[in-house]
Amino acid sequence: MWLTKDDFRIKAENFDLSNGLNILRIICGLFLFPHVAGKFAGGAVSAATAGFFAKAGFHPPEVWVVLAATSECAAGIALVLGICTRFAALGATVLLLFAVYALQVVKGFGWTWNTGGYEYPVFWAITSLAVGIEAWKAHLAKARPRVSVVPASAAA
Fold this sequence. Notes:
The protein is mainly α. Helix content is about 65%, strand content about 5%. Strands 1-2 form a two-stranded antiparallel ribbon. Strand 1 and strand 2 (about 45) form a beta hairpin. The radius of gyration is 20 Å and the shape is elongated. The protein starts with 19 loop residues before the first helix and ends with a helix.
């Protein structure tokens, strides 16, 4: 019971902004879109981005850029809409950890985002992981069969 039809339904409850987890899920999705846009310039793969991917060891870099952008876009859409949330959030976590890996390979250790470090992708990877964990917990709670307990006095 990994995927169900319910995973692909867009529900009004996914947009209830009085639920903090919905806010966090939507923001996690929205914050992936600048990653997608930053990989392209003038409708093509950015030469700087392709160069970065090449330095990180992803060959051919243009293919990896398109794969990363497609994956980020799919995860972002799914998170914003609340579809397949548990998989989208874990996918976003993996994507962001790849970004951390690439930054480490290319630039070495650097923490703060304003110096090209990986503070920002680490934060969003952890946030996406938290969304994924909560989505899995909710899924497992729904899938668990309910056992009703009959009080002894009612059974007699």
